[in-house]
Amino acid sequence: MTNRQRFEDKRMSIAATAEKIIRETMAERGLKKPDARRVVAREVGVKPGALERLGNGSLVHVERITDRINAYVVQRLERKIADIEHELALARLKADRTVEPDIDRARAALEDARRALRHDGK
């Protein structure tokens, strides 16, 4: 594999990553592609035109934004993980709250049944 091929592979990989982030932003925020590109560019710390040129293959210095895009991907994943952990904690709390009243009701019913059996046996 030549250096040029390696460069093209890296460029295509980072371009695909940037495109995926833009599509996710479109879906998450209900934006059209140019608006989503602007949002992503702002959050990544590059100009929207750089992402556009990356996508159409005309960005000359891909290496200048590769680290920023990769760091942004890591931030997004960390944010998603934190959101999911928060949802999981809430679900666990909710599950604990719904189980305890059921257990309390079952205990009360069992105690009522025991009392009823004691009264019937006397």
Structural notes for this entry:
The protein is mainly α. Helices cover 88% and strands 0% of the residues. It has four helices and no strands. Helix 1 crosses helix 2, helix 1 packs across helix 4 and helix 2 packs across helix 3.
What are the key terms here?
mainly alpha; 122 residues; single chain; 0% strand; rod-shaped
Helices and strands, with pairings:
Elements: H1 3-29, H2 33-44, H3 48-56, H4 63-121
Put the structure in a nutshell.
This protein has 122 residues and is an all-alpha fold. It is built from four helices and no strands. The chain has helices spanning 3-29, 33-44, 48-56, 63-121.
**Strand elements, count:** 0
In N-to-C order, the SSE pattern is HHHH
Question: How large is the radius of gyration?
Answer: 28 Å
* Total of domains: 1
The main sheet comes to:
none
pLDDT < 50 runs, ≥5 residues: none
Which geometry do the CA atoms define? rod-shaped
Number of alpha- plus pi-helical segments: 4
Q: Which structural class should the secondary elements be placed in? A: mainly alpha
Strand content: under 5%
Say what oligomer this is. single chain
Q: Give the overall average pLDDT.
A: 86
Distance between the termini: 93 Å
What is the share of helical residues?
Answer: over 70%
